[in-house]
UniProtKB/TrEMBL annotation:
<feature type="domain" description="Ion transport">
    <location>
        <begin position="26"/>
        <end position="259"/>
    </location>
</feature>
<keyword id="KW-0472">Membrane</keyword>
<protein>
    <recommendedName>
        <fullName>Ion transport domain-containing protein</fullName>
    </recommendedName>
</protein>
<dbReference type="InterPro" id="IPR027359">
    <property type="entry name" value="Volt_channel_dom_sf"/>
</dbReference>
<dbReference type="InterPro" id="IPR005821">
    <property type="entry name" value="Ion_trans_dom"/>
</dbReference>
<feature type="transmembrane region" description="Helical">
    <location>
        <begin position="57"/>
        <end position="76"/>
    </location>
</feature>
<keyword id="KW-0812">Transmembrane</keyword>
<dbReference type="GO" id="GO:0001518">
    <property type="term" value="C:voltage-gated sodium channel complex"/>
</dbReference>
<dbReference type="GO" id="GO:0005248">
    <property type="term" value="F:voltage-gated sodium channel activity"/>
</dbReference>
<feature type="transmembrane region" description="Helical">
    <location>
        <begin position="96"/>
        <end position="115"/>
    </location>
</feature>
<feature type="transmembrane region" description="Helical">
    <location>
        <begin position="160"/>
        <end position="183"/>
    </location>
</feature>
<feature type="transmembrane region" description="Helical">
    <location>
        <begin position="234"/>
        <end position="258"/>
    </location>
</feature>
<feature type="transmembrane region" description="Helical">
    <location>
        <begin position="27"/>
        <end position="45"/>
    </location>
</feature>
<dbReference type="Pfam" id="PF00520">
    <property type="entry name" value="Ion_trans"/>
</dbReference>
<dbReference type="InterPro" id="IPR043203">
    <property type="entry name" value="VGCC_Ca_Na"/>
</dbReference>
<keyword id="KW-1133">Transmembrane helix</keyword>
Amino acid sequence: GIQSGPLLAGEQLELTGPVHALLESRAFQIFIASLIFLNAIIMGLETDYPEKPYWNFVENAFLFVFGSEVFMRVYVEGWRFFSCSNAELNWNMIDLIIVGLGLLDVVLALLARGADEGSAMATLLRMIRLLRLTRLLRIVKFLKQLYLLAFGFIEAVQAIIWVTLLMAVVLYVCSIIMVRTLGTVADSDPHAEFLHSHFKDIPTSMLTLFVILTSPDMPLFLRQDGLVFDRPGFLLFLIFFILIGSFGTIALLTGVISECMFEKNMVRIEERRKEQDAFMVMWEQKSAEIYSESFMRAGHKEGVAKAEILR
């Protein structure tokens, strides 16, 4: 059964029954996780061998299992499945969206039967089928380390945006320097064509520096005889730009994501500790109630015995 009434602070949601026991059993969790991995493999095989006639049947079988699981969870949890106080609300919504997209895929497949490959319905069906990949998101739920990594990355998105903005400013400033120093060399310079093609204006210079930042290609400059070694300032700039820009950015992003993962893990540990504390409080209360009832029953029996003796 499901508890009725609003949940109090620290109160645990008590769900019982064979369906809930099945959903919470380790064997069922392993079964669902295995199906998700198998579904991922099937998607790859379907991509490489699309001519096989049985893929739709296999996908519908996966959809039936995943849909049945969601239906059972809604049946067991009731309205709390959609409650904002439910810690699993985000995953519940993801599961509903995944099943909903699968059902939409089935409906569109029936409507598009016999339609031309280039028709709007067939194009829409292909786009919807690409969204089957969202099923793979459920893998994150069953793998703790992958869960921490994914949510650590999500938590780090804001910091990554600021790091990206910082690097854009650095690229812009360095591009101005490059355009004013190398992009305006005289045409008589032996490397004028190369420098003009890579540092002729701010956008081109930023693109060149971005390529250097993401995949340092020193041979590109070393192949230009005398370009680097005849300009020691340019050589020092490239060295420091690659060291600080490329390696520094990677280290900064790694540190930000790692910190977010650590904080997320600490939050999970704290939540688990609070759940255990709430469970202990509930257990103590129930133990006290049982003890009180037993004591009252013992007192009642003793009183009855004394009354019989007095008679």
